[in-house]
Amino acid sequence: MKWTDNYYKNRPLFNSILAGALYFLFCWSLDYGDLTKGLFMSLMLFLPGLTFPLTTCYYRTDNIKYSSFHRIIHFVLSVGIYHGSVWLFSAEGQIKYITILAGLLGSLLFQLLTKFILKKEITLTQIALTSLLSGLAFLPYELSERLGIFIGLAVFLWTITNGITLNKEYRKATYR
Predict the structure, then answer these.
(1) Which residues neighbour 176 within 8 Å (Cβ) at sequence distance 6 or greater?
(2) CA Rg, the chain, in Å?
(3) Which of 54, 72, 104, 119 is the most buried (most CB within 10 A)?
């Protein structure tokens, strides 16, 4: 078996790992100077909201086809959910543990949106567990000195956790 076979069988998971690792490195770079802060703030304002749905949700196979309308609506609402989570996250200095709530709600709303708009076969139990773990991914950041490495770890864990759920559904839908 070639590595490409594993990639095609697990595209949402591999893409989540790759994107999560890039976000981790990008966040970690904040600990090494002010030069990357402007770039970080401008890119992280939209980049994860754009890339996560594009790299995990819209695969076409023999068993999976979505209309352009469903993909566009899902994509626009996904970006809106991401921006709402970033807005919640921005209150981190005023409200204790708000980043955990932002991670939990972002995951919950994204997974529900994916279930109902794209008709993915994700159970409500999977959604609840994924959301809880996604929120808890931000706990080290809340308990630390709020370093870039911890926000990077949180974003990486959030991305992987949600990618695992979407990968499981992708495999179920693709290899029935």
Answers:
(1) 63
(2) 16
(3) 104
The stretch 81-85 carries a mean pLDDT of 92
What are the extents of the domains in the chain? 3-174
Task: Convert the pLDDT of each residue in 102-119 to its tens digit.
Answer: 999 999 999 999 999 988
What is the value of pTM for the model shown? 0.89
**How many whole angstroms separate alpha carbon 114 and alpha carbon 99?**
22
Owner of token pair 């972002």: 106
